[in-house]
Amino acid sequence: MPRVKRGTTHVKKRRKLLKAVKGYKWGRKKLIRLAKTARTHAGAHAYIDRRKKKRTMRGLWQMKINAFVREHGLSYSKFIDILKKNKVEVDRKILADLAVNDKEVLTALITKLHQK
Q1: What pLDDT shows up at residue 82?
Q2: By three-state DSSP, how is residue 68 classified?
Q3: What is the pLDDT of residue 4?
């Protein structure tokens, strides 16, 4: 069986790895052994944080809604309760966007539902 030389493949693989870890601190950007573990850990953290991002965003939406409805004499929980009792199915992302960008619409919604 003939001998297979893997020089080009090996160099390509290392070059791809070093491109992925460009910008990392210390030896993790230039030493192959450290770069491999750094890339693995970075990938694991990225995976976890993509899920954490959803939690964080929901909390941010809740804060925006709460800040807006407090100006109108309601608490966040009472506002959500009123929405559920009146079967208004608008998610928190949309409500938060309304609270920031289109305050008149959300004010009209609050006054209409709060009067019932």
Answers
A1: 95
A2: helix
A3: 83
Helices (H) and strands (E) in the chain, counts: 5, 0
Task: Tell me if the pTM is above 0.70.
Answer: yes
pLDDT below 70 — which residues of the chain? 116
Eight-state DSSP code of residue 87: T
Q: How far apart are alpha carbons 23 and 104 in whole angstroms?
A: 46
Q: What pLDDT does 5 receive? A: 85
- The CATH classification number of 22-115 equals 1.10.1900.20
Q: 65: which 2 tokens?
A: 């809604």
Q: Do 20 and 39 meet the contact criterion of CB atoms below 8 Å apart?
A: yes
DSSP codes joined into one string, 27-58: GGGT-HHHHHHHHHHHHHHHHHHHHHHHHHHH
Q: What is the DSSP letter of 90?
A: -
CB-based contacts of 22, cutoff 8 Å, min separation 6? 29
Domains of the chain: which residue ranges? 22-115
pLDDT value of residue 50: 98
